[in-house]
Prior knowledge:
By secondary structure, the chain is an alpha+beta fold.
Amino acid sequence: MRFVWAVAAFVLAALMIGAGIAQRTxxxxxxxASQAIAVDADAPxxxxxxxxxxxxxxxxxxxxxxxxxxxxxYARTADATSWLSTSDYVHVTPAAxxxxxxxxxxxxxxxxxxxxxxxxxxxxGSDLWLDEYEGTGTLDETLQLPDGMSLLIAADGTAxxxxxxTVTWPIRNATPWAGPxxxxxxxxxxxxxxxxxxxxxxxxxxxxxxRKGLPMPVTEPIDIAAADDQKxxxxxxxxxxRLTRGRRAFAAVPAVxxxxxxxxxxxxxxxxxxxxxxxxxxxATVVAPKDQESPVVTEAQAERIVARIADEVATADAARDGxxxxxxxxxxxxxxxxxxxxxxxxxxxxxxLPAIPSGRLQVILPEANDEWPRTFxxxxxxxxxDEASTVMSITQKDPWAPYKLTYLAQLTSDTDLNLAPAYVxxxxxxxxxxxxxxxxxxxxxxYADILTKGSGSEFASLFDNTDDAFQTQLESDRSTRxxxxxxxxxxxxxxxxxxxxxxxxxxxxxTLDSGAIVAVTVDDLxxxxxxxxDAVIKTGDNTAVQALAGVDQSSTGFVTTYGxxxxxxxxxxxxxxxxxxxxxxxxxxxxxxxx
Length: 595
């Protein structure tokens, strides 16, 4: 019976091990799925919809083959189609029958593409792309684009785009019973071996000597001489115990070796996943309103844009090239930079403006907007321990224009603001909004009135001046300049100060407590005029005024304008809070002879 059980164990072990190995070999399905994308029409661009790339779960390996340069990038589908509105392109989308639809899309009308250059757009370096890739002949990239994203493929933006495109997805072929089957088969194999050895020992023991009543053979005399001839010959036949031990050791070693070989090929996919998946701990989240549009940039995209701005402005700074600076700067930021270039050329020891900060950003507040223009605020950490963080407002005019830095200031307040996360974005506040303590378009004028009239201004009660570092600094600078002027020209002239709203459009993004961060410019004017007709105003040691005005004296005086970029927190109209200054920067813009 023991032999029967041993044979049954061997047979069952063979079946289980064979079934487990078969699951990992002959019965295992394909490990990848591929889709060749046929592009029939010649166009400078191919746009592959995210639904095509997401036909299978997991990473998407895209292989593009061409005869020359290859460019690829991805972005939100709406952004990509807006950028392509002035060009022919092939749009690849999934069809209803599961196949792919490849349609040639003609350029949009001139009204739709208003603002675009008449020249074909260049895909490289666009601020709309979340990432971009380049290659020659062949380009292989692994992506994982969600719905709402699309992949743009081109050669150089003019030549036909590569038409040989293949997307490959990995397929996870889990065989959770392969491991248990092989393990169970090995256990049965060892059990069958043990049963076989026990049965063999029992059978041999049962064949021992049996006593029978037979007559004894006749005793023959022993030949002593023959015995002497074989003296010293001893039989080397082993005993039954040693034979049995030898066979047992011989059979056990192959069983262990086979088991080791079988388990060496078992990966994690060959075993059931019994451990529960990790449950993330709850965290505070902000849910965007149902009708709110998408944030204009991601965090990584914002950091890349700021880094590009910093690099291009640094190149312009090195060459003191105002035209080059205009590719990434606008408004008062650009005017201050161009004035600085003029002064650096005229005054050898004049101090250049600080470099634009880049790197990892502390705060990113993008506008939630699917149209243009688009804006986002960013805060960069201080470059040194004795410096302040830098707050920036960066705007893109249209899909083809680069983002430009329009406001730049140093934070001076420690006010805690309730901002939306970057993945939600903030709503842009119209410049004439009646829901704030003051409309953004009126903020600069109201603050300028305070700078001119002080506490006598009708707007003084709206502002919190207890933490207003700009007013403190401005009063000190005015006092210093007035003292310097009076030391030589008090008897023949007079210096007066005033402030007016700047010409740069205000920018306002909402906070979560119904307030807004508003960026404005205010111009501070110093006017020096003679007090009698015979007097002449000279620039004296003020080399900056002389360099900008082009003369060293004037019978009518001089007017010098300083551009001030200011960031405020403006509470809602129903709030009891007052308007707070968050940060500022001040730079000389112009100096001219008074008319």
